[in-house]
Amino acid sequence: MVFDEKPRFPHGFRCAARNIGLKRDAPDLSLFVSDVDAAAAAVFTRNRFPGAPVILGRETIRGGRLRAILANSRISNVAMGERGLQDARRMAAAAAREVGTFPDLVLVSSTGVIGLPLPIEKIESGIGGMMADLCEDPLVGAAGIMTTDTYPKALSCSAGSATITVVAKGAGMIEPNMATMLAYIFTDAEFTPERLDALLRDAVHISFNMLSIDTDTSTSDTCAILASGRAGRVEEPVFRDALAAACVRMAEMLARDGEGATRLLRVTVGRAETEQQARTVAKSLVNSPLVKTMARGADPNVGRILMAIGKCLDVTLHPAGTSASINGVPVIEGGLRVAFDEEALRAELRGDPIDIEVDLAVGRAGATAFGCDLTEGYVAENASYYSS
Amino acid sequence: MVFDEKPRFPHGFRCAARNIGLKRDAPDLSLFVSDVDAAAAAVFTRNRFPGAPVILGRETIRGGRLRAILANSRISNVAMGERGLQDARRMAAAAAREVGTFPDLVLVSSTGVIGLPLPIEKIESGIGGMMADLCEDPLVGAAGIMTTDTYPKALSCSAGSATITVVAKGAGMIEPNMATMLAYIFTDAEFTPERLDALLRDAVHISFNMLSIDTDTSTSDTCAILASGRAGRVEEPVFRDALAAACVRMAEMLARDGEGATRLLRVTVGRAETEQQARTVAKSLVNSPLVKTMARGADPNVGRILMAIGKCLDVTLHPAGTSASINGVPVIEGGLRVAFDEEALRAELRGDPIDIEVDLAVGRAGATAFGCDLTEGYVAENASYYSS
After folding, report:
1. For a tag on chain A, would you pick the N or C end, based on fewer CB atoms within 10 A?
2. Which of A118, A294, A307 to probe the B interface (max B CBs under 10 A)?
3. CB proximity list for B230: less than 8 A, separation 6 or greater
4. In Å, how far are A125, A311, A385, B327 from B352, measured between CA atoms?
C-alpha cells in the first residue's frame, strides 16, 4: 500500500483546530466536518468505566450518520456522572449550532486527565466561528486532539477511486480492547452504515486492537469512520485492503510514538493453534516489561522471549519446537537459545523497527502485535501527568 | 504476628555462602543444610519454559524429604536443553558429596540471566569445603542467592514451640504463578510432607502468588519448605497462621525491593463476587503501569484507579457502587471522583506503603495484592541486565 507523502482529506471533509484555554498554548479543540450527512460506524472502549462521550457516542452512532466530530484534549470527561453526560450533550449541541446540523449527527470525544470536570463553557464559547477556520489539512485537526503525542498523526491513501484518511492520537493508557484511543477515519467511498461497521471492525481487529503501549485500557477509546459517498462505489475487497493497511500503518505510528518510546516493536507469531492464541502470545511479548526494556537497551537478553511465551498458560505450546528470531537473526531454535553474533544483534536492536518473529510449530494461525520499548521517559511522563 | 528483630534459623538448620566467580566479588553460591532428612514440599513456576533446576526439582520433591538446598545466582540454567538438565544433576551430586547424603535429597536452584550455559565446573570445585563454613545466620545464605535485590532477605518468627524462617530473593521478572521467585522456608516443627504441601500451598496462595513486580513470570520460580521436626508437633492452626503471616511479610519485603522500586504498593479489594475476581482486580491495579507511575510521582491522578478496575472485562462490577480510597482517604465514591485535599493526598502518596482499598459492592469476597511503584530505575536496570 502506498501512502500519500502529505496526508490529504477525501472530497467533502475539512477540519479546524483552536486553543480555547485547556492547554497552555497548543490547539485543544478540533472540529471535523463533512459537507454531507455521511454514513458512519464506530467502535468504542470496552473499559467498564467509559467516559461520558463514549456513552453518548454509542447512542449517536446507532443512527448510522454523522455530519461532524468535535473533540477536545487535556480533560477527558470520565467519572463525572450525570453532569458528565450533560456536558457531552452540550458539547454536541454547541457543535451542531456552529455547523448547522442536529446534535445527533455529531460525535464528541474528550481525551486527557480522568476525573476532572469538563470546562464546558470554554468549549461552548470557544467553538464560535470555527466553521470559518475550516481547512483541508488533516494534520490541523490531528494537532488539536494530541495529549502526550509528540507530533500530530494523519495519513491517507487511495482505495480505487476513493481516498481513505486516518487522523489519530495515541501515546499512553493504550491497550485498546474492541476499539482504540481516538482514531477518526474519513472516506469519500460509498457504503451503507452496516457495511462500514463490518469493514471497520475487521480493520480494527488486526490493527488498533493489536496495539499496546502499556497494557492500560483507556476509558475514552473511540474509533469512527465517516463515508461521504462523493467518490461513488468502490469494490469492497479493494476498500477493505486499503482500510486495513491504513489502520495498521496508523497503529505502527501510534506505537512508535508511545509515551517515552524510541522505536516500534513488532511481534509476529506464526503456526499457532488458533488466531486467538497467536494474538495472546504476540500481546504477551509486546507487553512484557522485560522484552520492552531489552529493546530499550539493545541488550540481547533473548531468554526473555521464551519467558514471555511461556507465561501464556492457556496457549497450546510445543516447547521443543518453538523458535524465534529478531530482525531475521535466529535466537531461539527448538526451545533452546542458539549461538548468534552478539554485536550484530545489538546493532539490530538499536534499529527501528524491531521485528520479533515467533514460530510456535503447533498449527497454522498467526497474528501481529504492535508495541514499543519501555523507557525512563515513560516513567517520567506518567509520574506527573495530572500535575503538569 | 511478631517477627524476630534479627532473623534466626530453627534448630538443626545452617547455611554457608561463597563467591565462586560467577559474580564479580559478591557471594554467588549458597548452601542450606538440615541436620536430619527433613520432611519437605515445594511449588514451582507455571512458566511453560521452566529452567532445568525446576524440572529436576519437581522430580526430587516427590520423595517428600530434603537434606540440603544448593543455589547459585547470576546464571539461571534455562533454555539449555539436555545439557542444562545434566548440569542440574551434577550440581545436586556435588552438593550430596559435600554434605554426605544422596543427590535426591538435594534441591538445586539457579537464578540469573536466562539462556547462558551454567559454569558447572566452577560450582563443582567451588563447593568443596563449604560444610566447614556453615553458620547460623540465614542472611548469609540469603546474600548468595541475590540477583538485583538491593539487600539480603530473611525473616523468622515463632509458631508455638517451633520457629519458621523464610529466606528469599526477588527483584524482577516477578509475577509468580503457582509458586514464586526463590523462597526457602525452614522450620523445626513436625509435619508430614503431605501436610506441609497443603500448608505451603495455602500460604503461597495469599502471599507470593499475589505479588507482582512487573507481570513477567520467571522460568525459575521455586518455593520450598523443610521441616526438621526437632521442635516436635505444633498445632496446625497456629502453624498455618504463622506460616501465612511470614510469607505475606516476605512478599511485602520482595515487593518493596522490586527492581527500581521505592515503595510498597498494597491493593485490597473487598466485596467482590468471588475470591478469584477480587484477585483479578487487585492484580490489575498493582500491575497497571499508570497506577504504578502515579505512586512513583505521588501524583493524585486517581481516575487511573477506575481505569484499572474497568479494564477487568470478566469481573462482575457495579460501576455506580464502586468506591476506592488511598491510605484511608476516599477518592472514588459511587463510581465518581470525589473532592479531596490534593496536598494531603500527595503527602500520603509520598509515604510507604501506599494502601489502595477498593470496594466493588457486589459480593463478599476479598483479596490483597502486593506490588511496587514503577521507576526510571526499573528501566535502567533492565535495559542492560544481560550485559552488565
Report:
1. C
2. A307
3. B10, B11, B12, B35, B36, B188
4. 45, 30, 21, 10
Name the DSSP class of B209: G
The structural architecture, per CATH, of the domain B13-256 is 4-Layer Sandwich (3.60)
Q: What is the dihedral of CA B253, B257, B258, B261, to 10 degrees?
A: 130
Residue of B nearest to A50 (CA): B310
Instruction: Provide φ and ψ at A30, rounded to 5°.
Output: -120, 140
B309·A335 Cβ contact <8 A: no
Look at residue A185 and tell me whether its pLDDT is greater than 70: yes
Of A230-244, B186-200, B218-232, the one with minimum mean pLDDT is: B218-232
- Residues of B catalogued as catalytic: 180
Catalytic residue among A147, A163, A165, A180: A180
Pick from B299, B311, B379: CB nearest A374: B379
Q: What is the pLDDT of residue A381?
A: 78
Q: Which residue of A has its CA nearest to B311?
A: A47
Between CA B74 and CA A25 the distance in angstroms is: 51
pTM given for the model = 0.81
**pLDDT above 70 (res A321):** yes
Encode pLDDT of B72-100 as tens digits. Answer: 998 888 888 899 999 999 999 999 999 99
CB-nearest to A78 from B215, B293, B303 is: B303
- Chain A interface, mutation test: which of B147, B336, B340, B342, most A Cβ atoms within 10 Å? B336
- CATH number assigned to the domain covering A264-382: 3.10.20.340
Domain ranges of chain B: 13-256, 264-382
Q: Rounded distance, CA A223 to CA A364, Å? A: 30
The C-alpha atoms of residue B78 and residue A279 are separated, in whole angstroms, by 25
